[in-house]
Amino acid sequence: MSQNMAYYNDGYNHDFTDEDAMRLVRIAASPEYRPHTCRWIDSGTACDGVIQGLYFPTHMRECHSIFVVGQDSPRFQCQWEGCSDTTLASKDILMRHIQERHLLWRWNCPNCGMVFLGKVSRNAHHALCGVSNK
Ligand SMILES: [Zn+2]
Ligand SMILES: [Zn+2]
Ligand SMILES: [Zn+2]
């Protein structure tokens, strides 16, 4: 029997498995640190700018005028190329829509590698993950 066949059922250290390597790669590829291509349609053409995930909200504000100008709750419509969503959303909801639908952000639990569509649900899971050592 190969030692590489050992799975996570005893709570002790294992050799560095393919699964570990995959997990590290996924964390390094966290959407916040990956470059994304912006396909926001402005004046008839797609932006095409490449922006690191972390700076996407800044980019949307500075290049596409998605910002809050002292109104209580300004609403924006998604102008992403090919997007058929015509609902008006607040800036925060629009940013989440862009991240989830157009940039296809995925969030991993650093603990178990489970994938989530939203950072909030990932964080909620992560808070509990590993607490009970099952
Ligand atoms: Zn853009
Ligand atoms: Zn959209
Ligand atoms: Zn987890």
TrEMBL record:
Domain of life (superkingdom): Eukaryota
Gene3D superfamilies named in the record: Classic Zinc Finger
Protein name, entry field: Unplaced genomic scaffold scaffold_675, whole genome shotgun sequence
